[in-house]
Amino acid sequence: MLYWFFVKVLGPLARHRFSPKAFGVDNIPRQGGGIIAANHLSVIDDGVIPLTSPRMVHYMGKSDYFTGKGIKGAFKKWWFTSVGVFPVDRAGGAAAEGAMNTARDIIEQGHLFGIHPEGTRSPDGRLYKAHTGAARLALETGCPVIPTGLFGTDKIMKIGQTIPSKGTCTVIYGEPVYPSKHQEGTGLTRQEVRDFADKISRAIQQITGQEYVDEYAQVVKKQMAAEAAQKAADQAKKDASAAKAEASAEPEL
């Protein structure tokens, strides 16, 4: 599988570029299913974790990676499938349920599944409220969750950056968090799932020391985008008014 080609052959090049340091690797179970739950700072996060994990980690990838047309589309689908990535429809709901079922199968087959509970990259370096997918998977399968902290990846690959810069980053794997025995299996309540999701967030925060925001990152991103658009519109209106005033003040020749 290309996953190990990436780790063993391309890995040295990536390590030279990113200089990843790993701590707490012994907290990753040597066998059996588990969830690597990490904060999310950069698009390279899912490349850094495989460089430091002794076991293969499967990830979800947005469905666009698997539906492209032509040679490029076929290559992307082949590549992501080969390195252990499977598609998820970010529209959520029933559209994303298939991806969650795949993740559940991966865990039950004794493999590791990697996920960022925040659901998207942090827009400002803070830690945002976790979605409940990782918590539900752990509660339903009884597998451990390994809270993971990423540091410095946002400096190597900033939002909007195309090519990663040379730099250093760190990955810290925390002690596994296990679902309570009475919670395992079906019949879970929403509150049980929410509570365990928050427990995972607290475990990640204890590692990273990030400021916690009790809102979903997607919501904050939309608010920030709306504020930026409004600011740009206000500035454009102000510039237009200034230009009009300047034109009316010019003396006639």
TrEMBL record:
Gene Ontology biological process terms from the UniProt entry: phosphatidic acid biosynthetic process
Coiled coil residues, start to end: none
InterPro entries, per the entry: Plipid/glycerol_acylTrfase (IPR002123)
Bias-annotated ranges (Low complexity): 242-253
UniProt cross-references to CDD domains, sorted A to Z: LPLAT_AGPAT-like
GO molecular function: 1-acylglycerol-3-phosphate O-acyltransferase activity
Protein name (Swiss-Prot/TrEMBL): 1-acylglycerol-3-phosphate O-acyltransferase
UniProt organism field: Scardovia wiggsiae F0424
